[in-house]
Specification:
alpha/beta; 16 helices; binds S-adenosylmethionine
């Protein structure tokens, strides 16, 4: 394969700096489409340095794995770090994988320069750059039972990676071989993480930079179970700004670095640091948390909480002290059953008085904080649904509910947007709830007015918004996450509801103020 770059190392240049220049040049020569297809976003040299600095490995021989290596910047930064910090190192072994054929000559160029540099430091280095798909090449390791590998394997002391990010289709070969760690339409990065964890030696270190989406949500549940059973988390660094981290490659994801160790004897603490982006990388906000507050391995969902500020910490403390949740209060949350494009035959724009019986249909745009605005005329967002035999399974009985948006938009101030609905809002036996809205209800009974208002006020409050953002980095609000969320005692919820009803002021300002009076965060000094 021909190397199209004209870049040559300059005198005294570190391998990571050279790899960075190679990556920048390559990245500017390929299209956005090419990057998207390959999940290709190169790590800036400052971040590569930070990730490398997390390694504490030392030894006579150290084996490193860099899957999805790109221009090899992570390997270079890590090798520099180890060479600079180790006193006993004699041999390095580096195994890297890259599938983009045009990029391989560049990776080879970076590798040759790295080898030369390492040798100049009086250390041996053996390298192997695989041009195969990392997942398919190692797929046998997913068949492993316990610690028994189905074929002999040389495990690694450190895995460092910025893996590709994109969703795989259910029948993609890689999704199929990785069934034990992912389900549905998995994101390829989670398979890279799981496989890497498997390929580590006992006490080996794993350092990954990825989107933070695996921290919560049903799509990544089996991944979290698999991964956090093997990997004990030591450090997390969260990039708060979506734009800054990979700005030159236009990645708009909340990004997280994790460093963990493959060990059974778990450490009791995790260090969480955060920075806006690249500019303040050297002065991160750093806090240490008990591990059980960050990830509870005995919980069903194994959500990874990522608090970063004093306020986050104080808010977590409030939630920690609550033992209630929706299930304990016999309250359910379900997704609106009306999928608009499938239910078109029953949807109506105007109220028709006469033989047809109509129910109101609530869409995402009808749900505002603390208020259900209905009807709102919009094209193709019919505000009524026919009540007839065939549409009946799509309708729900007219009772008291809380309607909660399943998505917020990036511009919304709050992630959780909930509105109360009372049965006397309209005279109808049934109501319709569109699929982008969740509804909260009591299954065999009804929610008291005070419960509807109290719970709705909590969901819309800045307190809940802060807590929600600690574990959810995207705009989706899943029913499962809500089911797991701790709640204050039911009588407190009712009391809050009654206070708001008495004041007869349902504005978010008022309801938030009341919630804040009940639960004031206490900052640790
Ligand atoms: C997000 S980029 C990161 C590159 C490099 N590690 C860095 O930090 O700059 C991921 C790289 O993985 C490569 N890649 C994508 N799918 C792969 C696969 N299945 N096996 C190996 N490499 C893959 C892409 O071509 C891309 O260069």
């Amino acid at each position: 394969m021909e190397n199209k770059t004209s870049i040559k190392p300059v005198k005294q240049e570190l391998p990571s700096q050279f790899a960075d220049r190679l990556g920048v040049e390559y990245s500017s020569s390929v299209s956005q489409q090419h990057k998207k297809e390959n999940g290709q976003f190169f790590t800036p040299v400052e971040i590569a340095g930070l990730m490398a600095s997390y390694s504490e490995s030392d030894g006579d021989t150290i084996r490193i794995l860099d899957p999805g290596c790109g221009s090899l910047i992570l390997s270079c930064a890590l090798v520099e770090h180890i060479v600079n910090t180790s006193k006993i190192l004699r041999t390095l072994e580096l195994v890297a994988y890259e599938t983009d054929f045009e990029l391989i000559p560049i990776a080879q160029q970076a590798l040759a320069y790295l080898e030369k540099w390492v040798n100049q430091q009086g250390i041996n280095i053996k390298t192997n750059l695989h041009t195969e798909d990392f997942i398919l090449f190692n797929s046998d390791y997913f068949k492993q039972k316990g610690d028994l590998f189905s074929k002999p394997v040389e495990l690694f002391d450190i895995v460092i990676s910025n893996p590709p990010y994109f969703k795989l289709s259910i029948d993609d070969k890689r999704a199929k071989v990785a069934k034990v760690v992912v389900n549905g339409h998995p994101n390829i990065y989670a398979i890279f993480m799981a496989l890497s964890a498997t390929l580590l030696k006992e006490n080996g270190e794993l350092i990954f930079i990825t989107p933070r989406s695996y921290a919560a949500g049903g799509y990544f549940k089996i991944f979290r179970e698999y991964f956090f059973r093997i990997i004990d988390l030591d450090k997390v660094h969260l990039f708060i700004s979506r734009k800054d981290t990979f700005s030159r490659d236009k990645v708009l994801q909340e990004t997280v670095i994790i460093k963990g160790t493959k060990r059974l004897n778990r450490e009791p603490h995790v260090t969480i640091s955060s920075s806006g982006g690249l500019n303040d990388l050297k002065t991160p906000l750093t806090k240490v948390f008990p591990k059980k507050d960050i990830i509870d391995l005995s919980s069903n969902e194994k959500i990874l909480y990522l608090p970063t500020t004093d306020n986050d910490e104080a808010v977590m403390e409030i939630f920690k002290n609550w033992s209630g949740n929706l299930k304990k209060y016999n309250i359910m949350i379900s997704t609106g059953p009306v999928v608009a494009f499938r239910a078109r035959d029953y949807l109506r724009e105007n109220f028709e008085n006469g033989t047809v019986q109509l129910a109101p249909l609530f869409w995402l745009h009808n749900v505002k904080q603390m208020v259900l605005e209905w009807p709102i005329v919009k094209p193709k967002k019919e505000q009524y649904i026919n009540i007839e035999e065939k549409s009946r399974p799509l309708l729900i009985p007219n009772k008291n509910y809380i309607l909660l948006r399943r998505f917020s938009s990036k511009d919304d101030k709050n992630r959780l947007i909930a509105a109360p609905y009372f049965f006397n809002f309209i005279q109808a036996d049934f109501i319709g709830v569109e699929n982008k809205v969740n509804y909260i209800y009591r299954k065999n009974g009804h929610l008291e007015r005070s419960e509807v208002v109290g719970l709705c006020a909590l969901l819309n409050s800045s307190l809940f918004d802060t807590f929600f953002r600690i574990f959810n980095g995207n705009v989706n609000v899943s029913a499962t996450e809500l089911r797991e969320m701790s709640l204050p005692p039911l009588n407190t919820i009712q009391e809050i509801g009654n206070t708001i009803i008495l004041a007869n002021d349902f504005s978010v300002e008022n309801t938030s103020r009341i919630v804040n009076e009940y639960f004031e965060p206490v900052y640790k000094t």
